[in-house]
């Protein structure tokens, strides 16, 4: 073999481990997208653990709602199952609005929102990261207030069907609320604007959640509530798709 051929073969042999490492460390687009979503969510979680602004406001408001409704209504055994589903969902919705109001406020007030939008990530990853953070905060509050509801109202709210309904309702609420929170963050009256935009849209989730929660408490079969279940699932799918398609235009404005 000639000297030039030996040099070429040696160069190929020396470079092959580096090429192999480059191929093995190459991340698929799906994993890269997921990492970006989780990074944004993790940023919000860490920020909340330091400040405790969102969770504190949501938890205190939810706690006040529970005790106010407890003493406002003379809840006897015969009317508890009728009123508690509505009380539960009103508590979830109003405490959730407090958390959604703060979703983009920290970035906007500190001037970091433009930097976040200029980051080399897809805008949908920002939306999903923010939505997942809101979903986590609301779920933590719900996990705390549900046992409190069970103690005060003596009802089996730790039912698998009720837990699934609450999760689906919270998912739809977070999907719409995160989009509207990004829309209202740059307005002067953002604390008022968000509920005005949000409440009419989430009305189907609220109605379906109340009806299905009451149905599970009464022992109604799931087959009899399938229309409400379809409404809840359909709402989540439709508004997740709408938010995914419109979030880029919302934050640009």
What does this protein structure show overall?
The structure is a single chain. The protein is mainly alpha-helical. The protein has helices at residues 3-24, 29-51, 53-72, 77-101, 105-109, 113-118, 123-153, 160-184, 190-201, 203-218, 226-252. The protein has one domain. It is globular. Helix 4 (77-101) runs antiparallel to helix 7 and helix 7 crosses helix 11. It contains 11 helices and no strands.
Short description:
This protein has helices at residues 3-24, 29-51, 53-72, 77-101, 105-109, 113-118, 123-153, 160-184, 190-201, 203-218, 226-252. With 253 residues, it is mostly helical.
Main features:
253 residues; mainly alpha; 0% strand; disordered N terminus
- Structural classification: mainly alpha
β-strand number: 0
Measured as a percent range, the helix fraction is: over 70%
Task: Profile the largest sheet.
Answer: none
Gyration radius from CA atoms, angstroms: 24 Å
**Number of helical regions:** 11
SSE topology sketch:
Blueprint: H1 3-24, H2 29-51, H3 53-72, H4 77-101, H5 105-109, H6 113-118, H7 123-153, H8 160-184, H9 190-201, H10 203-218, H11 226-252
Helix pairs in contact: 2-7, 3-4, 3-7, 4-7, 4-8, 4-10, 7-8, 7-11, 8-9, 8-10, 8-11, 10-11
